[in-house]
Each structure stands twice: as structure tokens, then as C-alpha cells.
Amino acid sequence: MKVNGKDLNPVSPMTVEDLVLSTGRVPDRVAVELNGKIVPRAEYPRILLKEDDSVEIVGFVGGG
Question: Which domain does 39 fall in, by range?
């Protein structure tokens, strides 16, 4: 699987939420795109990732 352009080989099945948490991010503070489509936050714990998936995780940054 590719995550933010880098290859990742998870050792066990993982959900979108598992992936986000494994990066040290908080699921409520990111947006996730899976194979070109935005994943609704409520679906993070339910969607299992596959070997050929492409994932982009974008964090929100505050400022002004």
C-alpha cells in the first residue's frame, strides 16, 4: 500500500483509523483520501485497507 506516496507493508489487517493512529495523528484532525476518494470520518473504523490501496492523510494546521 502507498501512504502519502511512500510504500507501507502493514503486518496485519488495518482500518483507516488504525493507520491514522499509527502515524501519531488524531483521527478528528485529519482528512483521508483512499484511492482518490475522501473517506467520511465516521467510516475510518470500518474500512479495511488492502495491499493495493493508495492513501493520502492530510492534517489540519491552525494559524492566522
Answer: 2-59
